[in-house]
Each structure stands twice: as structure tokens, then as C-alpha cells.
TrEMBL record:
<keyword id="KW-0472">Membrane</keyword>
<feature type="transmembrane region" description="Helical">
    <location>
        <begin position="102"/>
        <end position="129"/>
    </location>
</feature>
<protein>
    <recommendedName>
        <fullName>Transmembrane protein</fullName>
    </recommendedName>
</protein>
<feature type="transmembrane region" description="Helical">
    <location>
        <begin position="369"/>
        <end position="390"/>
    </location>
</feature>
<feature type="transmembrane region" description="Helical">
    <location>
        <begin position="314"/>
        <end position="334"/>
    </location>
</feature>
<feature type="transmembrane region" description="Helical">
    <location>
        <begin position="35"/>
        <end position="52"/>
    </location>
</feature>
<keyword id="KW-0614">Plasmid</keyword>
<feature type="transmembrane region" description="Helical">
    <location>
        <begin position="141"/>
        <end position="169"/>
    </location>
</feature>
<feature type="transmembrane region" description="Helical">
    <location>
        <begin position="282"/>
        <end position="302"/>
    </location>
</feature>
<feature type="transmembrane region" description="Helical">
    <location>
        <begin position="189"/>
        <end position="210"/>
    </location>
</feature>
<keyword id="KW-0812">Transmembrane</keyword>
<feature type="transmembrane region" description="Helical">
    <location>
        <begin position="340"/>
        <end position="357"/>
    </location>
</feature>
<feature type="transmembrane region" description="Helical">
    <location>
        <begin position="231"/>
        <end position="251"/>
    </location>
</feature>
<keyword id="KW-1133">Transmembrane helix</keyword>
Amino acid sequence: MRPVDLVVDMPTDAQCETAPKGTAVSVLQNTNTPIFVFLGIVGLMVTAFKFPPLLDYANHYTRMWLIAGGITEVHLAQIYALDWHGTFTNLGIDLMARYLGPLIGVNVLARAILFAAVVLPPIGAIILHRTVFGGSYYWQIAMLYLAWCATLIGGFINFQIGLGLALLFASVDLHLQVRNRRALFVWRLLASLLLTIMHLFSLGFYLALICGLEVSPRLDLRRSLANWSRLAIRIALAFLACTIFPVLLFLRSPVLPGKALGLETMWNATPTRQMMNLFSAIWTYVSVVDVMLLNPVVLVCTNAARTGRFRMHMGLAIAALGLTIIACLSPRSMMGTGWISWRFPIMAALTGMVMFCPLPKLARHEARVIMLALTLVVFGRTAWIGYNWWQGENDANDVISVLESVPPGSAILPLAHLVLTDPLGAWQRHYAWGEDTFRHLPTLAIPFAQSFVPAVFTARGKQPLMVLPPWSSIAVPEGNLSSTGVLSCPSWLERESVLAPYLSNWRQRFDYVLIMNADQPDKYVGYALPGGLKLIGDKPFARLYKIDASFVTDLSTTSPVICPDPLTAFE
């Protein structure tokens, strides 16, 4: 059976397989040129911008730098250590840093990994779409739109690479489904092991894809009981193959991800939260821009639905629907892992793109319009991302510049000016819904100043990096940036110290204060800072202050700062 035979034509073969009446013969829809141009542009972007505004990326870079050999630096060897026995998943880039970092250098490796995180999901979707529908279609250009999504802007590098690998592995799976069922089971065992190591969520995505591919594309509900039984057995075998290795690794793991943090859970409990959750599949820096550029893609779909010229794989449609339902029902965070529900919409969107083939045959004039529209959308969005990366690179360079004044072995307290809105032209500093993207830039103090910061990713069960005593007493496995206002407001500082215990006795624990977003006034205290801080590094985005540990606050004077209620400070 050829791959092209594995899809259902909706609603009739005549409607889907012929060009509109009265038009010329349909043209060949060759998408290779725009795809390769896109790959080239992304390659230039990751080469030109070392630290783009992707939330977790700087933290990942720092951890890779340490794993690749930086941990042996004199001052850092006393602070950090590696423990490879504490986790079994989310290890993809860490293993690459361990084995490839010393050979090619972390700068090259980090850029290659970022390139893969951007391009693998859409390229994997394109390859699977070609396998399912048997060729190249202009719809595949639209899949490049999903290269830019909330999980990428969040810097979820392992997750993004895992999505792409799941789609590529599903393409191999589809070939084996119609050829050799024994080889298929062995392949699924191998794929499940690789995806578990890369990121556990990518294994779930792969399982959803292969179950969708196992379901008959036409989904004939009138099939015999024997056919339903065979389908149930095939899906059960898929589950078995994909769960053997994860279960074995789970049972032998000494520490489970997030176990120490308990089952505290946050939900998308309001319609607004659910909307933000589902739109995470497309949202980047400014939601209006993302939605505006999505319109031509939507118009292609609606035109295909209105004219009846489309093809669909019903099994993948069920998978996409299931992933959407899971996205709505999943918690936003649990066991110390954030953005749980926000990972499923991009899975559903990629699956939805693969399941659908609108306008499979186009007349020449139609083909020109469709290709031009989709190409402009994809490259227009890429240019928009490129502009934000260019702006974000300036912010990262400011941080690196002020760190030049820090002697090795210092302890740096990172803070930020929290704002209501970004200044015009600086949209890259926050996501579409207000999450900052610069939170982890202070971790660059480790590779660039060989100094300590408290919030490098060191969660047991998630990363192999650990903090040694006595530094571990002022370290957290994951963390946010507090407002500079906590330094001037004792009651606020006390409450904030519950989540960031390193803030207590900050004058005695740290040597420097590093402030992010310094060119904008903090929404609570403006530019106010307590006494005993000496400015030694001043750039638009970042400022560095030396802490005078001997300074004593004069309690007889009234503070000029109006402190917010600590219970509502971050609402």
C-alpha cells in the first residue's frame, strides 16, 4: 500500500482530486525552495544572535558550558558538581554538551541545538505530511509558521527538539506499518528510548501520532468486530512498545522530577486562561502580530472547506482532537514543572497541520496566489522574530558588559525592574501574555565572570547539575527575578524569601546586585534602591552595584519608598 493511499478524500474523490471547473490543468506544488530558504535564514539568525530573547535559553547555555568543561574552572569547581544518576529524562542537550561540547565548543553546539529546536518541529511535520499524502503541497509552507511558538520563546529546547524527532520517527513508523510489524515493534522500542531521554512529553506526542496513524484514515464505523479487535491489538502493542523503557527507567531512578516539591497544582481555571493556553501554539512576543499573520493560513483552510477540495487523515484528526482535550484538562503547573498544559496545543497544532491537505490540486493562477500568500506569511513572521532577536541581543550584550567588572568567585544577587508594559520597540522583553524573557540572563555570570548566581537549573530528576555546600544554602533549582523593591521593603522581602530564601540577609550573602530591565522604572518603587549600593556597571538594560556589607540602615529616617502590600505585590 502506497502512503498516498492512507488518506481519506473529503467529501468526495471528485471534489478533492480535480481542479476547479473551467481552469487549467493543476500545477506541481514544489515547496523545496521556500523550505530551504527558511532553513538558511534560521541558520543566519542563530549564527548572528548568540543569546536571543528565549526565556530558558541562557540558563541552558550556562549549564551546557559547565558540563562541557567549565565546571573545572578553579572558582566554579568549589560551587558546582555533576550527578548523572539523578535523572532519566530531559537529558538531550546535557548529553550533547557532555560528549560534543569538548570537541566542537559550546558556542557552536549551542547554536546547532537552537537551530534544531527551531526547525525540527515544522520540518518533521512536513516530512510526515509528505509521507501521509504522497508528495509536496503548498500547505507544507504554512507548517513553517509553527516554527515560532510559545514553547520555543520559552526556551524549551529539549521539548522542541523532541517534538521534531517524534514527527520524524512517526514517518519511519508509517513506512514500517505497511511492511514489517516485527521490525515496527523493535523500532518503537528504540524510538521510545531516545524520546524518553530527550524529553518525556515528546514520547507522549510520538505515541499520539502513531496511534492516530494506526487508525484507519477513513474511520469506517461500520467495520466488523474483527477489524475493531485488530485495531485495538495494534494500539495496545504501540502502548506496550512505548512504555517499556520509560517504566524501567522510572523504576530505577533514585529521584523523580519534582518529587521534593509535592503535588501543588495550578490550573487554567478561567476562560481567559484557557484561551492563553490554547493560543500558546502560535503566540510569541505580541499576540496581535501572531494572529494577524495567521489569517492567510486560516483563509486557505476555510476556502478548502467551502469548496470541498481537501484531503484528511481521520486517524490523525482524532489524535489532534485528543491532544486539544488534554491541553484543556491538564494543569498549568505541577510538581515544580511549569507550562504543562501549554505544551499540548503546539502538539495539537502540528498534528492538525499534518492531518489536513487543503487544495491538493490547484490551477496555475491559484497556485501563484496560495504560494505567495503562505510564503509572505512565513517569512514575514520570521522577519518579525528576527527583529525581536536583534533587540534582545543588545540586552544580552549589556549584561555581559557589566559583568566585566566582577572578579571570579563572587556571589551575584539578580533582580529586575518589573513593568506594566514594555517600551516601544522592546517587545522582545516579554511574551504575548506578559511573561518576561530576560529572567535567566543573569546566569551568564557563570561563564562570563566565573561567579555564582542562585537560580541555575539544578532540579534533581531534571538536570545533572548540582550546587555544593555552602553555596547550596543560597541556591534554588529554578527561580524568578524579584523586584528591586524587595530590598527596600522588609515585609515584602520576608514574604518573597519563602520562594527565594537567598534574599534573607542579602547584604552578607552576596557581593553584587545585578538589575535587569534597568532602563525602565519598576512599577512598585521606580528607580529607588536602599543605601550601601555603589554603581560600578551601567548599561541601558543592565546595572551592576557593589554591596557594602558593613552598611547599617538608619531606622530613625523615613524611607522615601512607598512599599506595596506584600500580599498583592505580584497580582
